[in-house]
Amino acid sequence: MRRMSGFNIVSLTFGLAFLYLPMVVLVIYSFNASKLVTVWAGFSTQWYGELIRNEAFLDAALVTLKVGLISSTIATVLGTMAAWILVRSGRFLGRTLFSGMIYAPLVMPEVITGLSLLLLFIGIDLDRGVLTIVLAHTTFSMCYVSVVVSSRLASFDTSLEEAALDLGCTPWQSFRLVTLPIIAPAVISGWLLAFTLSLDDLVIASFAAGPSSTTLPMKIFSAVRLGVSPEINALSTIMIGIVATGVILFSLMSKRATIRQQQEERDAARSEA
Amino acid sequence: MRRLILILVPYLWLLALFLVPFLIVVKISLSDVALARPPYFPQLDLSGGWAAIRDFVAELDFENFAFLASDDLYWKAYLSSLRIALISTLLTLLIGFPVAYGMASARPEWRPTLMMLVILPFWTSFLIRVYSWMGILSQNGLLNTFLLWTGVISEPLTIMNTEIAVYIGIVYTYLPFMILPIYATLEKLDGSLLEAAEDLGCSRTSAFWLVTVPLSKPGIIAGCFLVFIPAIGEFVIPSLLGGSDTLMIGKVLWEEFFNNRDWPVASAVAVVLLAILIIPIVLFQRNEQKNREAGQ
Fold first, then answer.
1. Which of A71, A216, A255, B96 is the most buried (most CB within 10 A)?
2. The complex's ipTM?
3. How wide is the angle at C-alpha B222 spanned by C-alphas A117 and B273, nearest 5°?
4. Is residue B140 a part of any domain in this protein?
């Protein structure tokens, strides 16, 4: 591509400003002493204090974290298995149906996924609560995990696995010692994606949750339905802060890992020669 | 044997928690609403044997679909969801393309940072990103205060709780989905093609329209589908930013289920919505397939 023109700089600046300005405003107004959005009444951290004292939010946050950790871990295992089947298992009966079921949830409107799961849970008389939210989240996020992992599986050299098998590894050993370390970055990304999707989900959780289990997005949604709330501004600021730190740390780490891997590959190539 | 188990576990999981639930939706969409628990009729009782199943099937009908067709609320909701999704997709393209173009023409060492800046909002809560506009767009919100202060307007604009606010919400939340696929195609674009076009007498503008745009078509199409498909069934954005007259089918389904407790009609709404979505989904899959084959 060619050099930066003035137009490119302007469109980039506007695009990024558009993406970030609303969040910056939210962060700034979370420190506003006034309850009103438009009036700036000085710096204050009182909304953070009220947020911490609000036990309903704390309970919801714990439920959300619990659901997120459990569902993303199961989804990572199932999704990696599904990716392996899609990329390595060749033909088997019902393969088309299987890949259809992996890709369909990615484009399925959340209201339909939520509705159908709720009708299932009622149909089999399963009490709605943390368990049903975990089941629902695992199901849609395993599909995302399998897409992420299968693209990595498809791009790597199968001769490494074959070599391990030739040298006397069992299939499980070859997976654990050769495949897994190579696809590990994709598996970790998949887990992070599943975890974020679970923390973020409002619609499916609203269908799958019972009266006793409320997740943080459900709590936020009911609080902001009628208008802006300074406590939610404070909560949003905390969440934005956590995500930003996490993403930046992770991308720095993976950058370093890629550089190291490239270095090792170069060294290996040199020693072969 | 081990391979069988490996296949069976995720397979059965998806069958039980994706396919079967959807079949239940189809079944209930053919049932009638009833004042009972669960609130629909007929119930399938397998212990009655074949005769019971025959009776059960005989009770199913397409009444709910006839109802959807006759009540213009649903027609209008489907059509306005399609319209809102289409307009917001075009707006997203209009904003997203120049950003992707700017990213692709930035210096290579800047690109990963720009990429991360575009992806970062995607990791932030969707709900919070939609919510952040509520304080900006409301009657006495930041935008109106700013415009009144600069003297551009003398009366506050009503944006919040209108369709315009829904457009802003969709464009804002789905912008990264448009930027990234377009950027991916633009980044691979061979700069010498543009030089060749200019050497052959093209102006820079016509080289852009004759070379850059056609070559980035796969990315543009992918980005448009990635915005259009989820926007149709959107629930959070119309319910937080839209008004009571903003009709979108995701919201109608939610209200039909939670407020009216009419499960059969809600199920029928879901079945029709999916039937509508299948067309863009199949087209999207074809586009992706074509890109993969072209890439090999």
1. B96
2. 0.87
3. 35
4. yes
Which residues, in sequence order, are bridge partners of residue B33? B40
With an 8 Å Cβ cutoff, are B233 and A18 in contact? no
Residue of chain A whose alpha carbon sits nearest to that of B96: A15
User: Cβ separation of B140 and A89 shorter than 8 Å?
Assistant: no
Instruction: Tell me whether residue A3 is in a domain.
Output: no
Using one digit for the tens of pLDDT, what is the confidence trace for B57-104?
A: 777 888 889 888 888 889 999 999 999 999 999 999 999 999 999 999
The residue range of the domain holding B99 is 67-295
d(CA B105, nearest CA chain A) in Å? 5
Q: Does B88 map to a domain?
A: yes
**pLDDT (tens digit, 9 = 90+) per residue, B121-175?**
888 899 999 999 998 998 888 888 888 888 888 888 888 889 999 999 999 999 9
Q: Which of A11, A137, A248 to mutate to test the interface with B (most CBs of B within 10 A)?
A: A11
Domain of residue A83, CATH code: 1.10.3720.10
Token pair for B165: 């606010």
Cα B201 to Cα A19: distance, rounded to the nearest angstrom: 38
Domain that residue A176 falls in: 54-243
List the structure tokens of B95: 């904003």
> Which candidate from B11, B24, B274 shows the least CB-CB separation from A119?
B24
The secondary structure of residue A43, as a DSSP letter, is B
